[in-house]
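[job 4471] stage=fold_predict status=RUNNING
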Amino acid sequence: MATIVPYTFEKKEDSAVYFTSFVKGMKVLIATEKPFAAAAVDGIVEILESAGHTVARLEKYKEKSELLDAVADIDALIVRSDKVTADVIAAAPNLKIVVRAGAGYDNVDCAAAKARDIVVMNTPGQNSNAVAELALAMMIFMSRNCFTPGTGGEIKGKTLAIHAYGNVGRLVGQKGKALGMNVIAYDPFVADDSVFEADGVEKITTIEELYRRADFLSLHIPATPQTKGSIGYDLITSMPKGATLVNTARKEVIDEAGLCKALAERDDIKYVSDVAPDCCADLCNCAGKRYFATPKKMGAETAEANINAGLAAARQIVDFFATGNRRFQVNK
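[job 4471] inference complete, writing structure tokens
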């Protein structure tokens, strides 16, 4: 059974400064079914306690009821991939801010939070390098026959297409260029062409052209009502012979029926993902070594990213309570 571990200040001198900060402090819960690294937790606690807040931890919990109980008296919540649903929000009458330690925030019910005037933030950029490195590693892994015997290929000289040119996409592009790849990118939300020009990346104006030219397609779009299921049969089968689709985004953006059909009909196309699709068994049967997925989502699973995201979450909570800063709010 998971337990909630309260934290208090180590120094409890009888001083007005200490007492005032303690009484006025907010209670912050770190709720992580998959805990942060110990160094990250230590840093989070130090940041929050130094600002006068108290910290509680709920780690490795198995039942949602444990989370519902834990949020009953908190003012702020830090999570990783934990699901902050409407009933979790309803069970936290004092909740003022939720910070998702990472870039994606589809595990938080932003609408339910907004209805309560609860601020939801992410920590953009903190996991970016870890995800970018994984994307390139997956390209090499697939081009080398999943490291099994046989003649593979090289990624040098191939066209790397990037779908969404944000923090992760730009890093993937930079690393791809360093490895000798030709990099193109599509992102209608990046209006400034100089961003692409500065990176030596060719800006593509349509999704169709992006996929049609991609030897390797690195996918970085978020899971939104508009993007869920948007990558399907037509786009995948338009890719060149021997192309590889790399998904370090979310499994929900893939039309799985279309993906299965495409890989069944095109015995040259490959798909690799850091989160297994629901149709994993079907893909294993029809695609063999042309398909690979990690057992659990691991894009941000590095010690460095783990610490960076956790500390950023703590600093954003401190700044929010101290100054009202909402810079990274995602549910405006």
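[job 4471] summary: The radius of gyration is 22 Å.
[job 4471] exit 0
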